[in-house]
UniProtKB/TrEMBL annotation:
GO terms for molecular function: phosphatase activity. This is Histidine acid phosphatase. InterPro entries: His_Pase_clade-2 (IPR000560), His_PPase_superfam (IPR029033), Histidine_acid_phosphatase (IPR050645). It comes from Dictyocaulus viviparus (Bovine lungworm). The lineage of its organism: Eukaryota, Metazoa, Ecdysozoa, Nematoda, Chromadorea. Signal peptide: none annotated. Belongs to the histidine acid phosphatase family.
Length: 166
């Protein structure tokens, strides 16, 4: 049974752990997060909130974690969450990324490579090239046969996010 579980984990992780795949699957949500971070830092949120909450499947969390380079090659348990905190210290805004994968323990800090401490500007510079801003951009990238397989999944995520923002 252990071998079957390990093969299942490897198969599921392989859906997200290549750069082009993680960018296509997690890049649109990452773009949304970065836009919200920038709006908070600039004070331009159209609907100022103390918190934004997204609810999703573990695959969406995995794709976001791989797109951000903070995944640990483990499956995401049910009821897990990724929390991005934005706080101000002096004139700079900083970001911390937390991961909660156990409801009986507090979330732990995910280190963003090359971004400690992580200002909003460093975060945008670190991930700016990894975002997918539009369905059209996604389709251009998907023209290559190597990425065509995952484009259907991305299209579903994109349309779901568009629908939930209405």
């Amino acid at each position: 049974m252990e071998i079957i579980n390990e093969l299942s984990r490897i198969r599921r992780i392989s859906e997200f752990n290549e750069t082009i795949i993680s960018n296509l699957r997690g890049g649109y949500l990452l773009n949304n997060w970065l836009n919200n971070v920038l709006n908070v830092a600039n004070g331009t949120m159209t609907k100022p909130n103390r918190m934004l909450l997204y609810s999703s499947h573990e695959g969406t969390l995995l794709s976001l974690m791989y797109a951000m380079g903070v995944a640990n090659d483990r499956l995401v348990p049910f009821a897990s969450s990724i929390i991005m905190e934005i706080f101000k210290d002096g004139s700079d805004h900083y970001v911390e990324l937390l991961y909660r994968n156990d409801t009986t323990a507090p979330p732990y800090l995910l280190e963003i490579e090359g971004c400690q401490p992580c200002t909003v500007q460093k975060l945008l510079k670190r991930y700016g090239s990894m975002v997918v801003e539009s369905y059209g951009q996604q389709q251009v990238v998907c023209c290559s046969t190597a990425t065509r397989v995952i484009c259907t999944a991305f299209s579903i995520i994109y349309l779901h996010l568009q629908f939930t923002q209405l």
